[in-house]
């Protein structure tokens, strides 16, 4: 298991070398329950908490993915960077250019290592256009698709294909 504090310190030093000012009052934590995200930066008052999904700390996961996630969340602690636009995006591009990372707004599921993110339990497919709607929990869409329309083609979901995993 990798040491989150050591990797966080390394990422902060990299930001320091680029003169990127992030918050000084950050707490790092491992999130053992996260199923659909790699990390999160939460702000409470003037304090920040960065949570990293536990599977990222496993030795079998790419080290680069852990560092990219830490940088992504650390950049959220910079002034005016809680959103993925404007200043946050510009800072992410600076870090990417300097260190060869690929810090993005979100990670595409098909680009992540196998088993890192929970697979959806249900899949609903539009009968007209084939748009796919994945669900992790049983919901009204799963139980009563006839009450809904496709978000893409507006076709009623009557007769939609529902697949269980």
Order of helices and strands: HEEEHHEEHE
Beta-strand share of residues: 15-25%
Low-confidence stretches: none
Spatial order of strands in the largest sheet? 1-3-2
Label the structural class. alpha+beta
Overall, the morphology is: elongated
Q: Helical percent range?
A: 25-40%
Provide a count of the helices: 4
Question: Separation of termini?
Answer: 30 Å
- Quick check: average pLDDT? 91
Number of DSSP strands? 6
Write down the Rg: 19 Å
Biggest beta-sheet profile = 3 strands, mixed
Could you give a short description of this structure?
The protein has four helices and six strands. By secondary structure, it is an alpha+beta fold.
Salient structural properties:
4 helices, alpha+beta, 165 residues, elongated
Q: Topology, please?
A:
Blueprint: H1 4-17, E1 26-31, E2 39-44, E3 47-53, H2 63-76, H3 86-99, E4 122-125, E5 132-135, H4 140-143, E6 161-164
Parallel strand pairs: 1-3
Antiparallel strand pairs: 2-3, 4-5, 4-6
Helix pairs in contact: 1-2, 2-3
